[in-house]
Amino acid sequence: MVAKFFLSLFSFLVFQSLVFAQLKLEIRLSPKETIVQCEPNRLYIAIENMSKDNLKVEGVRNLIGSSLLTLYVNGAASIYFPLQEAILGFGSDPRLGPGERVDTSMGLSYPVFNTPGKYQIQLIADFSRSPGGFFSGRIESNIVLLTVQTPTGEDFLAWQDAYLQIIHAEGLAGSHDERSLCSRLFDSMVLKEHPKSIYMAYALWRQGLSGSGSWKEIGPEREFGYNQSQQEFLISDPGALESWQKSIRDVIEPWEELNQNFTDFVYRDQLLFELSRAYIRIGQSQKAIALLKELLQRHPRSEHAGKAEEYKQFLHAKNVWKE
C-alpha cells in the first residue's frame, strides 16, 4: 500500500512537472512596482508554449475575459477582477506553436489596491476542464510584489485638496472613504493647482479621452483620408471647420502635456498610439510618425504595436514614412 501510494504521488509530480514544462504563465508589473494610493498600474501577462509541439489551449487569446484565469492577492482569490480594464490578446485561435507566446495586460487599480501596504499578486490559469485534444492542467504564474504608499509632497497636497473639495460639495454626510475619493480624484478641478502631481497625469488622460471617445478605429487608409474629406466637406463653413479643428486640439493639448511631463505614465503605449491618430486627423503626419516610431521601439510587445505596424506599412507605401 505504501509503495502504491508513493508510486501514485511520483506519477502525479511527474505529470505536474510535464504540465509546467509545456506551458509557462509569467507576469510583471509595469511601469512601477511602487505606487501611491489611487495610482493605477498595469500587470503584463505572457503565456508561452515551452514545448516542441503544437498545443491547443482553450481561450489562450482571451484569458482575461474568461473564467479560466483567477487573480490572487496575498494568497486569496480576489473578488474584484478589473475585467473592464483588461486588454485582450488577438483573435480566438487556440493553437500555440512551439515557442509561441501571447502577450496581454490588465489594469490594477482601486478598490483592491487603494490602501497603503504590500500586495503579493499571482495569476492562476485552470485548464483542467478543457475539452479533449486541448492542453489540460493548472498553471501558476510567478509572484510579483506591488507596494502602495501614502502620497507625499505635491501628491499629498492634491489628495488633501480633492478630499476637501468633496466634503465641500457633499457635506460631512457624503461618502468620503478611500474608494470614493479614488473614483473622483482624477476628475477633480483642484488637480490643476498641482500640475506635477502624479494624479494630474490621469486627469490629463481622462480629459483627452472625453474628446476622443467617439473616435472609432477605422484603419490607416481611412484615417489619413479623414482629414482631407473633413476639410473639403467643411470648407464652405469656416465656423464649422474651426470647431472641428478645435475639437481635435482639445484632445492633443492635454495629451501632449501628459506625453512631455509624465514619461512613466502607465498607459503610455496607448497614449502614443491615440495621440498619433489625433495628429493624423489634422494632417500632421510627421508628428504622428515620430510617436508611432517611439511606440514600436519602446513597446514592441504592446497590443498597440500591431496597429502601429499597420500604419507604418501604409505610410511606407505612400512614401510618407522615411527611415
Name its key features.
323 residues; alpha+beta; 9 helices; three-stranded antiparallel beta sheet; six-stranded mixed beta sheet; Serine Threonine Protein Phosphatase 5, Tetratricopeptide repeat; 11 strands
Can you walk through the features of this model?
By secondary structure, the chain is of the alpha+beta class. The chain folds into three domains: 22-149, Immunoglobulins (Immunoglobulin-like), CATH 2.60.40; 151-187; 195-317, Serine Threonine Protein Phosphatase 5, Tetratricopeptide repeat (Alpha Horseshoe), CATH 1.25.40. 45% of the residues lie in helices and 18% in strands. The protein is built from nine helices and eleven strands. It has helices at residues 2-22, 153-170, 178-185, 198-212, 220-234, 238-261, 268-281, 285-298, 303-317; strands at residues 23-30, 34-36, 41-49, 55-56, 69-73, 76-77, 95-96, 101-108, 117-126, 138-140, 144-149. The strands form three sheets. Strands 2, 5, 6, 9, 10 and 11 form a six-stranded mixed beta sheet that branches. The protein has a three-stranded antiparallel beta sheet with strand order 1-3-8. A two-stranded antiparallel ribbon has the order 4-7. Helix 6 (238-261) runs antiparallel to helix 7 (268-281), helix 7 (268-281) runs antiparallel to helix 8 (285-298) and helix 8 crosses helix 9. The longest helix is centred in the C-terminal third of the chain and has 24 residues, at 238-261. The radius of gyration is 24 Å and the shape is flat.
